[in-house]
Write a structure and sequence with these properties.
Number of strands: 19
Radius of gyration: 20 Å
Number of helices: 3
Distance between the termini: 38 Å
Oligomer: single chain
Strand content: 35-45%
Number of domains: 1
Order of helices and strands: EEEEEEEEEEEEEEEEHEHEEH
Helix content: 10-25%
Shape: globular
Length: 344
């Protein structure tokens, strides 16, 4: 069943997304006309809710953030099906970035707390012109061990920004031994956008002596600006493979994390801010600061990328939050106000 909520201040446009960005607007996606590429909106297969190898248990959420009449960023439109929800937005900040509305903080909820075999989540988020949104999650995501049929657990996140600001800061994912995880994230930047984002993945449960020796993890992250690729990364990791242990791969590490920051592309001030953030991250996170891992940061073509590779999930989370705290005062120029769900 489709559910739609429309909130005051809705300035969202229906449509306008690329064909590959999986728009879920009424014009392009009807309740009875669904695809199964990621199980979006349902399944036409007769055994989609059975326990066969072909099952698919889908859920999706489609939300739009736009500028309300009072100058704040509001959750303008929300559509969902299955166990995906957005908590009410919060306004803990009193300042706004130049040319943008007062930012809102939003928590994306998946009540089951993890993915089992056949789960398929689709997350679509749009940030309208002038809006500024920080999206996070309340706790770590979990990708549980698959069953003996090795039915994948999938999540596809598609985010579109048009002359807006987005901070995409989910908590870490814990990939259980034997999981069949497929995690794809696409960012489409249109016009003069600013993006701060990270992803953190923990392989196995090291504290309990569990390594990622079985299963498969497929990660894909793509960032486009005005249709041109800025970043295209893909990791296809089989549990216990040489890629997991080889020095040319993960070198035995069980935790990997990336932090991304993009300026407005044609703005010299943003480019300078990214270079300053890159140097700040390098200085802050030297070898002594990360006893369980190592890090690096690069900045080119209007984009900052910082990496962590190690064996401590808490340390990786501290690295990403630290990189965000260094970058945010420079780009977009606001003090780093952590969401209250982080407990900082």
């Amino acid at each position: 069943m489709y559910k739609t909520q429309v909130f005051p201040g809705d300035a969202a446009r229906s449509g306008g997304m690329r064909p590959d960005s999986r728009s879920l607007t009424e014009e392009r996606r009807q309740p009875t006309a669904v695809d199964n590429s990621f199980g979006v909106g349902g399944s036409t297969r007769p055994d989609s809710h059975s326990f066969t190898a072909e099952r698919c248990w889908p859920a999706y959420i489609d939300c739009t953030f736009s500028v309300a009449g009072d100058g704040r960023t509001a959750l303008g439109r929300l559509r969902f099906a299955g166990p995906l929800r957005v908590q009410r937005v919060f306004y803990p900040e009193k300042e706004h970035a130049e040319g943008a509305a007062l930012p809102c903080h939003c928590c994306l909820l998946h009540p089951p707390g993890g993915l089992v075999s056949g789960d398929s989540l689709s997350i679509t988020c749009r940030v309208s012109p002038g809006a500024h949104c920080l999206v996070t999650t309340p706790s770590a995501g979990k990708i549980y061990k698959s069953d003996d049929r090795r039915v994948p657990q999938e999540q596809h996140s598609c985010v579109t920004l048009e002359n807006g600001i987005l901070e995409w800061l989910p908590q870490e994912n814990i990939i259980f031994n034997g999981a069949e995880a497929r995690l794809h994230t696409d960012f489409f930047l249109e016009g003069r956008c600013r993006l701060l984002a990270w992803d953190i993945h923990c392989l196995g449960r090291r504290a309990g002596g569990e390594a990622f020796e079985q299963g498969r993890l497929v990660l894909r992250t793509r960032i486009f600006r005005d249709g041109l690729p800025l970043l295209h990364e893909r990791l296809d990791l089989e549990g216990g493979s040489m890629l997991r242990t080889n020095p040319a791969g993960l070198n035995g590490a069980s935790v990997l994390a990336s932090f991304y920051a993009c300026g407005r592309g044609d703005d010299d001030d943003d480019d300078e801010a990214l270079r300053g953030a890159c140097e700040g991250i390098r200085e802050r996170f030297g070898p002594a600061a990360l006893p369980q891992g190592q890090s690096g940061a690069t900045c080119r073509d209007g984009m900052l990328v910082a990496r962590y590779l190690g064996n401590d999930g808490a340390e990786a989370l501290r690295f990403c939050r630290g990189a965000w705290r260094i970058t945010r005062p420079l780009l977009p120029g606001l003090a780093a106000r952590a969401p209250r769900v982080w407990g900082d």
